[in-house]
């Protein structure tokens, strides 16, 4: 039989890697000499997607029923990391660590901390791997039943540092010796401030960093990136101490001007005025900015971002929610409106727990040059925000809308204005009104469903929602997720009639009835019939929860 050309074999393995079909890639690697190199290259290039947590062989239910499968996957996961690390010592047949694009130390940390790894740890750190074994000076001990020795907790951060040092040093040295460039493009995990500038200096193709602690960032890291990593443009960190605003500012200012494309702070308590101002150093390149958990000092200085007008996606979360810019910082309030009004490329805007968010959006939504596709606003009162809700109707390009407002005290006019405005957004495919819709009836949902025929994902609350709802929802032929958190009184026949009206375009529909009135229960048999029907009709799923009020007697202290 004639062998296929090498480039065809490479493409086959690339497609298997794209599908994360690790089992087939492994089979290819051991089945043919012509396949071993492309199969191994692609298997290790996407190695960080292989772990217990996302394996297709098991799910959460399998941990009880299928222990053998879990152990097998953990063993494979362990062997894969061991082969990568040993290859950085030059002790493997193939240089696996030269194949990887992402050095995800989060994945390794997950393995080292996994309970299933305990019985594999001794073999993992055997022989030449002993140099990576570190335990705390005062190790914690856990009792293990039987005659097993006490398990000593690993010093994971130190182990990660040693592994990262070995791998980055090896790939850099190999690239220099071979006159090539390293394959690594991403690094992530708990990386120290001492190691980071050294590592990035070795990774010339570095594009993205995801750090556990933003405190690792400094001007020296920026300098190293500037000298060695011309493609770097993406930064994420999970959190940091609140006193590093100046260091963060030095990092952003130290990077090459207009080089940063995306910045995400998943806990932005360290981001202050200096950091906000320094981001203007990338005003022409910055497209995505996510700042979760900003403190009040940063909220009062949001206008310092006004140079960043190339944003495509902006997400801001106020950790305190106490600063009303319109009332107390009106100059800043007006400057923020002016800034967002100049962001003509802005397509995704998420404002969470921002007290002045609705007032800002009232003006921004009326701008003809701002055409949003995604909008999320949370933690604001439904009462008194009719102007904001009217302004929403001008954003007719919206495809995704999520409003989480407090409905307490809202009047009939507040609800009517909101319904009328959302009904003008005919391009909506995703709509989430849970909480906001607590006082909606069947009629309000019917009005929305008749106007928004492109919906694919709909979530809402309400009360006294009846079978009359189904006739309207049956017209949503693109619907894939229907999450009903309202107080409902659906009947068995009503739900079945809706399912029978579904089209092929509703394939895979997930129907969740999450708060059915206790006086309108569905028996286990009826639920099983509904599940069978939705599976047979559109290969869908059905979940049902009966609402039960808290028993006041059980919650009170007895005399």
TrEMBL record:
<dbReference type="InterPro" id="IPR032675">
    <property type="entry name" value="LRR_dom_sf"/>
</dbReference>
<protein>
    <recommendedName>
        <fullName>F-box domain-containing protein</fullName>
    </recommendedName>
</protein>
């Amino acid at each position: 039989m004639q062998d296929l050309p090498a480039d065809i074999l490479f493409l086959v393995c690339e497609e298997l890697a794209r599908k994360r079909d690790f089992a087939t890639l492994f089979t290819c690697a051991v089945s043919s000499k012509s396949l071993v190199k492309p199969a191994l290259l692609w298997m290790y290039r996407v190695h960080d997607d292989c772990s217990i947590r996302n394996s297709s062989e098991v799910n959460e239910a399998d941990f009880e029923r299928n222990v053998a499968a879990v152990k097998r996957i953990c063993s494979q996961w362990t062997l894969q990391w061991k082969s990568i690390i040993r290859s950085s010592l030059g002790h493997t047949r193939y240089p696996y660590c030269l194949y990887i694009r992402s050095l995800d130390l989060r994945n390794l940390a997950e393995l080292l901390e996994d309970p299933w790894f305990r019985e594999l740890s001794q073999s993992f750190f055997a022989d030449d791997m002993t140099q990576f074994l570190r335990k705390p000076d005062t190790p914690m001990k856990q009792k293990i039943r039987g005659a097993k020795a006490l398990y000593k907790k690993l010093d994971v951060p130190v182990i990660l540092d040693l592994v990262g040092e070995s791998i980055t040093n090896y790939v850099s040295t190999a690239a220099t010796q071979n006159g090539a460039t390293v394959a690594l493009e991403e690094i992530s995990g708990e990386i120290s401030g001492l190691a980071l500038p050294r590592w990035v200096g070795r990774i010339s193709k570095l594009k993205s960093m995801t750090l556990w602690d933003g405190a690792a960032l400094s001007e020296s890291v920026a300098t190293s990136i500037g000298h060695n990593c011309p493609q770097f443009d993406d930064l994420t960190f999970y959190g940091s101490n609140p006193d590093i605003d100046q260091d963060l500012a030095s990092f952003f200012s130290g990077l090459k001007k207009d080089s940063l494309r995306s910045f995400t702070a998943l806990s932005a308590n360290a981001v202050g005025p200096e950091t906000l101002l320094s981001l203007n150093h990338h005003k022409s390149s910055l497209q995505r900015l996510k700042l979760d958990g900003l403190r009040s000092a940063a909220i009062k200085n949001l206008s310092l971002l006004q140079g960043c007008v190339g944003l495509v996606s902006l997400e801001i979360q106020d950790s305190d929610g106490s600063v009303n810019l319109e009332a107390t910082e009106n100059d800043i309030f007006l400057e923020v409106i002016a800034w967002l009004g100049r962001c003509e490329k802005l397509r995704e805007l998420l404002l969470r727990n921002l007290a002045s968010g609705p007032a800002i959006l009232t003006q921004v939504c009326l701008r003809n040059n701002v055409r949003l596709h995604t909008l999320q606003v949370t933690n604001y009162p439904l009462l008194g925000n009719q102007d904001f809700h009217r302004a929403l109707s001008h954003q007719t390009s919206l495809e995704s809308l999520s409003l989480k407002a407090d409905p307490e005290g809202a009047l009939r006019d507040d609800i009517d204005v909101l319904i009328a405005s959302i009904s003008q957004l005919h391009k909506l495919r995703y709509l989430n009104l849970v909480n906001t819709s607590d006082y909606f009836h069947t009629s309000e949902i019917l009005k929305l469903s008749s106007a928004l025929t492109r919906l694919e994902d709909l979530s809402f609350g309400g009360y006294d929602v009846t079978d009359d709802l189904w006739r309207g929802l049956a017209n949503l032929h693109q619907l894939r997720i229907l999450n009903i958190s309202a107080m409902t009184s659906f009947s068995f026949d009503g739900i079945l009639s809706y399912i029978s009206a579904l089209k092929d375009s509703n394939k895979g529909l997930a129907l969740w009835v999450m708060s059915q009135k206790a006086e309108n229960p569905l028996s286990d048999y009826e639920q099983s019939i509904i599940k069978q029907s939705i599976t047979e009709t559109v290969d869908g799923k059905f979940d049902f929860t009966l609402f039960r009020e808290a028993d006041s007697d059980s919650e009170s202290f007895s005399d």
